[in-house]
Amino acid sequence: MIMKRPLPTSLALFASCTLLHAQWVGGGVFSTVVHYQACAFHNVDSGFFAYGANNPGPLPTATEGGLVFTDDGNVSGGYYVWYAPSTNLEDIDVKMTAGLPLYMAAGHRLYNRSLVVRPYDLPAQPFAFDSIGTGNGQYYRAVRMRDDLVAFAAGGTNAGDGIIDMSADTGATWTNVAVLPGQPVSRLHFVNDQLAFAATGGYSRLVNNGLALPDSGAIYRTIDGGMSWQQVHASNVAGFSDVDFLDDQIGVATRNDGAMLRTTDGGDTWIPASVSISGNYVLTSVVFRGDGIGFASAYRPDGTEGLILISTDDGDHWGFNFSTASLNYARRIYDLYFFDEAHGHACSHYKPLRTTGIVMDVAAGVVRTAFGLFPNPGTDVVTVTLPNGACGLVEVLDATGRLVRTVRTGGGKATIDLCDLRPGSYVVRAHTIEGVLSAHFVRA
Fold first, then answer.
1. Over the stretch 319-358, which tens digit does the pLDDT of each residue have?
2. Which of 9, 120, 214, 334 is the most buried (most CB within 10 A)?
3. What are phi and psi of 9, to 5 degrees?
4. Same domain, 188 and 67
5. Quick one: 167 and 18 in the same domain?
6. pLDDT for res 198
7. CA–CA dist 73, 46 (Å, integer)
8. What does the pLDDT average to over 203-225?
């Protein structure tokens, strides 16, 4: 039985079905002080949102975190089910066991004590929750259940290191399995029982909607079910906020500075994907839907716009899908979740968005036609030839997503000098009035 909490006016949850766009609409869960961090659903209509409040301060008593339950797909609102002052819940996961849902959420008390929220009576009361403190001087930002017994929670310590903890008894007790020096974990993703990835160095929310953007990060991988973790990619430019895989070979990681890196060999190598969103934005999450279409979330650091990006080619190209610039909510999107191909949610401040069931596609302004690159591989110069003699700005990005060249085309052509570029894989991105074109080349 769900316990309904009486709500003060400032935290009221009420319905709003105003159509915002053919693809995303405002959900009914609503609160002006709540940042909805993540969600998970056990059927198309029923699930939980994990949240933290008040940005996440400045007063400890004003930083309440908790779980909100919805039983109509977030159409008309929801109910507070578990909540506690001085907490911030940052992630939630669900597994089905014996026909019943098993939810587990993770977060912290003011970044100084990690905690896990789980049903206190398993499996008889799956919606009656209690919290377990797992350590002082540390915090959790991610949680994933490998099965109904084994779970992993990850985050960081007050010293700035990353941690990955493991439970083998459905979250009752926790043991540290990895310490990642200087690399706080932002998200976890399990591809299967043995293969999983951790993104580290992600952005952090500060008081009054400020942002902390680490200047480095890494991607870690486990091939033994989470018992050991090895770094497979590092960036000295920016941290990583999320990682998700389409299958055991193809995956994408989002970086704080707007770059997206892609692997096609199970995480051994990572190269930049093409992103056609302009301006300054922070990438916050990435997810592949069950039908293979990818989505990523972002927002402008000044809070003027939340963004959803889309990819229909296994994460190689990313274009515009939705903007909240015209709204007075959902300006900061933190996470995306899809229950199936037609039903999903964008967790945000202060009202989550939800999909209407319409199949989404890449916006018409995103052009993905290949253009000429010769020779490829190249050693001294590479010539870019744009279709129809198009003119525009041409950018070259290295394997970390760092901009290393900028040239302009004339008569549809541009020459890129390679003399001081290191051997390796690069992305050429051309901005034209018809859209954004991109292609890969190799500096031999």
1. 888 899 989 899 999 999 999 988 999 999 999 999 876 5
2. 334
3. -55, -40
4. yes
5. yes
6. 98
7. 6
8. 92
